[in-house]
Amino acid sequence: MASQNRLLFVLLAATTACVVAQHAPPYTEDCRKLTYPPSGPTYRGPVPWYTINLDLPPYKRWHKLMTDKAPALRIIVNSLKNVVNAFVPSGKVMQMVDQKLPGLLGNFPSPFEEEIKGIADVTEIPLGEIISFNIFYEFFTICTSLVTEDKKGHLLHGRNMDFGVFLGWNTNNNSWTVTEELKPLSVNLDFQRNNQTVFKAASFAGYVGMLTGFKPGLFSLSLNERFAMNGGYMGVLEWLMGKKDINWIGFITRSVLENSTSYEEAKNILTKTKIMAPAYFILGGNRSGEGCVITRDRKVSLDVYELNPEQGRWYVLQTNYDRWKNPFFLDDRRTPAKTCLNHTTQENITLSAIYDVLSTKPVLNKLTVFTTLMDVTKGQFETYLRDCPDPCIGW
């Protein structure tokens, strides 16, 4: 209940903040068409590519990227500090972050500890604040993900990365502060070993976990936050109290992308592993029927909802609400996304059609940082920065 109340408060506050120059929520537009290749006012620009060499020692893997992105990372870390200090003006919380969190770093699984240390040293940002940057994704990721299958059994995966709710609203330009500050940090990553791609991902510079990615030819994966009573704050508290058998979500998804060798293996791990916070794992494969949404509590799987073309289920779609429950009325991205997919039809589903769906408001919204399109079979991975010009709902 506490997590649901938090969401209600956040969205009601956002409704008040966003009412200027916007339609009252829920605001929905007609399904967009011909938005791909990306252009126009909803397209901010391409996302750059960087190679992460897994043959390097973990401490050195991120040096090139973080040398380029250190100024942008400092900006967002300062914004997060300002949010915290606004709630606790004494500055004691950030003092604890700088003094106490580094002592917990040894409890992180390999190779994340050394990677985070390397990022802190290169950027000259306090280690505790880099750790915080790697933790807060467990709580503020509000996204839309989908996997489709066409009439030939070809699978496609798309997602909007929505991030930054309750992390500062800029009244001058009607935008979420952290959402805007994440756009310069958005990167495509090609993780390589022996000069060969192991997996690709779309992420934020300074974050060593993964929320969106694919293993070419095998499977694709995205992560959405799940609002539940037994939320991520409980998981963090248990972890701090010594329960180290639970896993940080971003670390698990990266491990799956790096080490799993099949759709079924990835599904098994994501279904059974104890995780820090409730979540939805959206997983796609490379064969007909290999697509699912795994609804997770922290310790158990509640539901695995799979593609079933023979029964007419040619797509699976997930926002941030259990599929058997109605979405919060101020945040219904599910209905317009399903409407647009149904209008598209299975015969006409393509990456460009998925981009149209993900470009339709409120699926596209003020929190949308980027859109990623993935074709595992063809090895196609594309990420685009997004804008949502007014009128546009705040989440």
Automatic annotation (TrEMBL):
Q: What is its main location?
A: other
User: Which PROSITE patterns does the UniProt entry name for this protein?
Assistant: PROKAR_LIPOPROTEIN
Pathway in which this enzyme or protein is active? Lipid metabolism; sphingolipid metabolism; Sphingolipid metabolism
- How does it associate, per the subunit comment? Heterodimer.
Keywords in alphabetical order: Disulfide bond, Glycoprotein, Hydrolase, Lipid metabolism, Lysosome, Secreted, Signal, Sphingolipid metabolism
What EC number(s) does the entry state? Answer: 3.5.1.23
State the name under which the record lists this protein. Acid ceramidase
Ranges for domain Choloylglycine hydrolase/NAAA C-terminal come to 143-384
Subcellular localization(s) per the UniProt record: Lysosome; Secreted
Q: Which InterPro entries match?
A: Acid_ceramidase-like, Acid_ceramidase_N, CBAH/NAAA_C
**Residues of the Acid ceramidase N-terminal domain:** 45-107
Q: Which family does it belong to?
A: Belongs to the acid ceramidase family.
Reactions that this protein is recorded to catalyse: an N-acylsphing-4-enine + H2O = sphing-4-enine + a fatty acid
In the UniProt record, the signal sequence range is: 1-21
